[in-house]
Automatic annotation (TrEMBL):
Pfam families for the chain: TerB
Domain Co-chaperone DjlA N-terminal: 23-140
Alphabetical list of SUPFAM superfamilies matching this protein: TerB-like
Coiled-coil region(s): none
Originating species: Phaeobacter gallaeciensis
Protein's recorded name: TerB family tellurite resistance protein
Amino acid sequence: MFQDLLNRLLSPAKVTLADEDARLALCALLVRVARSDHNYSEEEKDRIDRINQSRYGLDMGGAILLREEAEAMEAEAPDTVRFTRAIKDAVRYEDRTAVIEALWMVALADGHRDDSEDTLLRLSSSLLGVNDRDSALARQRAEAAL
């Protein structure tokens, strides 16, 4: 179902994603962070849904549908390195820093920082091309919002 989008993301040529495809790819990355500690909690799902609502102006039903589609895509997506690098090529820098902030909000949704989530966040930030300063500021904004 998502193979066409994954093939475009992973093709050697740079691609420009349609808004709907970019939403799905970025939400799949949120799901990947939430699943990284092997405890995909209801709090994390709720946080992803609320991020989707505010970021994309969706109602709750639309946000849940986007998350469910992203869950399926994340399960089919290859390793984080190739997947995240592909997103980097398709998404503007400002949007990528906002993604890092959203990733932190998901990682912190269950009330504690997990080493596996921290590791994936550092890797994702680097692969998305977000510099250390902007990544730290994004984490601080996420912590303040909680």
